[in-house]
Amino acid sequence: MVGSGGREHALAWKVAQSEALDELHAAPGNPGIAELASCHPIRADDVEGLLGLCRQYELDLVVVGPEAPLVAGVADRLRATGVTVFGPGAAAARIEGSKSFAKEVLHAAGVPTALELGEARAPCVVKADGLAGGKGVFVCRTQEEADLALEQALALGDAVVVEELLEGEEVSLFVLTDGVTALPLAPAQDFKRLRDDDEGPITGGMGSYSPPPFLAPHEVDELVDLVHRPVLAELAARGAPFVGLLYAGMMLTEDGPRVLEFNCRFGDPETQAILPRLTGDFLGALARAAEGALGGADLSAGPEAAVSVVLAAEGYPEAPQVGLPIRGVREAEESGAIVFHAGTALRNGELVSAGGRALGVTGLGSSIAEARDKAYAAIELIDFPGAQYRRDVALRAVRVPS
Ligand code: AMP
Ligand code: GLY
Predict the structure, then answer these.
(1) Which segments of 219-314 are extended strands (E)?
(2) Predicted model pTM
(3) From ligand 2's centre to the CA of 55, what distance in Å?
(4) Which of 191, 127, 184, 200 is nearest to 161 (CA)?
(5) Which ligand has the nearest atom to the CA of 249?
(6) Ligand 1: does its nearest atom lie under 6 Å from the Cβ of 192?
(7) Consecutive 10-residue averages of pLDDT for the chain (402 residues)
(8) Whose CA is nearest to atom 1 of ligand 1?
(9) Strand, helix or coil at 84?
(10) Which domains does the chain possess?
(11) Which of 53, 58, 323, 339 is the least crowded, having the fewest Cβ atoms under 10 Å away?
């Protein structure tokens, strides 16, 4: 398991439940992953280090969690030496690495997306072209905001994409794929803004839940037919088949679904809400996707709903404080919630913050309301001075009759 975030902890947690698993190694992992795997101090982009681990432990499968190593071609390098890898090569990972490439593929595949605008005239959305950890997007309702956004986006690097501002419900829809077959996972909704009522800056994601009550199962299949399958076919036709997890972020507008973005890996924190719901052989499905033989795999969701709330360190997203003590994780787990570690570290045996988003607390229940209550009750048991978290994750979904 390559990576060290909440997503990788959730992946490790799910994989660890598989009877087929003999040994789990993580590079570099985190304190939560360390309870399930042997962690090695090797960075996610250290190809030589990863190859060394593969040889030393004769690893059968490598799962690459984060986007940066995928976009940089880590999966290609490992595959070239005969390692079986879950995660796309650089040519396919560009679908996340470059927003202009993603647009080009969407147009070629005939998939509906936000219209591109020639200039930053409000209302509009301004996006930095390259990877920005979800922080390079500016939603502008006034011209003042648009002017400022253009300046900030240009400061992040190369090109800037401007598109129409879309309104509606947002949904994150993932498929597992071997490049040809697409296996949809349960949909989720992500809470991108830092503060309640969708205020504050866009972050990597402050919480998630699954399933969104406004999306029927047959609609999920229709979305995958409309979006993922044509895009996978287009990438394959270009000689860049996508093996791994293809994430589409979509807006369900009055005029129909529109793709906002693609990611080349599992969403964080959506994964922390989706994986606990899945039945079936998850590790087996990852291996089969990596081996090009996904046909027939089944990863349907059970009846329980899940709500996951992120606890971020004070100062996130601009300047998260590291080294702040985090206590009460055990108590939170004993209350029945699942606590996924992201930016945490052990210092003299004590758990402390080590990044922006520190923990993801997932509650499961027979309804979204029950799952929500579980997650928030567990958070009450965690003592993390200055922690920021949203109180309204999945709140609207509780109010919508399903
Ligand atoms: P992205 O990284 O492209 O997904 O953008 C991050 C977030 O910005 C999305 O999850 C949406 O909440 C918002 N966003 C992106 N594009 C648009 C758009 N065209 N209209 C409205 N909101 C958008
Ligand atoms: N939660 C949004 C992302 O993973 O990009």
Answers:
(1) 244-253, 256-263, 305-312
(2) 0.95
(3) 32
(4) 127
(5) 1
(6) yes
(7) 98 96 98 98 97 97 97 97 98 93 96 94 89 77 95 85 94 98 98 96 94 95 98 98 98 96 97 97 98 95 98 96 98 98 97 97 98 98 98 92 53
(8) 261
(9) coil
(10) 2-89 (3.40.50.20), 124-164 (3.30.1490.20), 305-398 (3.90.600.10)
(11) 58
